[in-house]
Amino acid sequence: MRFTLRAAAGIAGVALLAGTAACGSDDGPTEGGGGGERSVSDAASALQAAAETTSEMTSARFEGRMSAPASAGGEMTMDGVMSWDSALVMEMAVQSEELAATPGAPQEMTIRWLDNVMYMNMGEEFAAEMEGREWLSLDLTAIAEETGDQAMVDALTMGLESTNQDPAQQMGIMLQSPGIEEVGEETLDGVETRHYQGTVTVEDAIAGDSGGATATLTDAELEQLVEMMEQQGIESYDIDVWIDENDLPVRIVQSYDSNEGPIEYEMRYFDYNTDIAVEAPPADSVFDFMDLLAEMGAV
To answer: For position 28, what pLDDT does the model report?
Structure first.
């Protein structure tokens, strides 16, 4: 069992990054064209309009990258599809320094997320050791309940399971910034966008300050955000969002300092409302993470 636990601990959080890097939007078109500066309230209103528009979407394709210390996953790239209609559903392919450096690990890992369970295709060597079962399943709720060890869940997910919001909720996080600014117009991959940026501190999240816009996060979501930031040693997020003429986010970049060091990740979104069909792997091809811990004498 050359890489199983190490690979699981180093890679499991990747599936959650796509959810956390999503950005959201409010309904109604933003002003198009023209340079010039807008007030903070105008910028917040434009972002809230984008949050509402995105909340009316149900799915998208995405591409992403993450730059982080090796202890937090290192350099990663990912691409796939996600839906946030009633609950998060996702499938993506991941390449990372962790995979490349882990003997026996696949060069590219397929990850599926549905029904609050993460499935990771661990590759041929894992399957050879696990009676042909190449998928490892992680039910985060069950792991926390059965082990009583929240620290283990945090290690597996880099503490990001509590920020698994849909794009509209992510825009809601940015709207907590009291100083949202419009940077200006930019063209991304041939698409005309408006670029906005803001910083969200723990104090902003506690205060529930939405920059003069209507709040888009519930009290429970704000409490969850504050708890996650404090657990991970995150004092503030720097967030940049690019919104197209349809009031849809096409790019979001988040950067912050954590207990593990500086982390930055970028997500690009396209093909909103695309059809998505993600299914759990066949039961006879799945090995449960809790069973793996038992075999290794960890529980």
So the answer is: 34
d(CA 56, CA 64): 22
As given in the structure block, the two tokens for residue 198 are 């803001």
The four Cα atoms 72, 77, 81, 85 give a dihedral, to 10 degrees, of: 30
Residue 6 token pair: 């190490």
Q: pLDDT below 50 — which residues of the chain?
A: 1, 13-40, 158-164, 212-214
Q: For 227-263, b where at least 16 C-beta lie within 10 A, e where not — what string?
A: ebbeebebebbebbbbbbeebbbbbbbbebebebeeb
Long-range contacts of residues 105-111, Cβ cutoff 8 Å, at least 24 apart: 105/3, 105/7, 109/11, 109/14, 111/11, 111/14, 111/15, 111/80
pLDDT, tens only, 1-14? 455 555 555 555 44
Q: How far apart are CA 18 and CA 275, in angstroms?
A: 18
Per-residue pLDDT reduced to its tens digit, 204-215 = 877 765 554 445
Position 273 scores a pLDDT of 94
Residue 131: burial class (beta carbons within 10 Å; 0-12, 13-18, 19+): exposed
Joined together, the tokens standing for residue 17 give 């990054």
Compute how many other C-beta atoms are within 10 angstroms of the C-beta atom of residue 16: 24
C-beta of residue 60 within 8 angstroms of C-beta of residue 36: no
Of 50, 22, 11, 82, residue with least CA distance to 265: 22
pLDDT at 69: 83
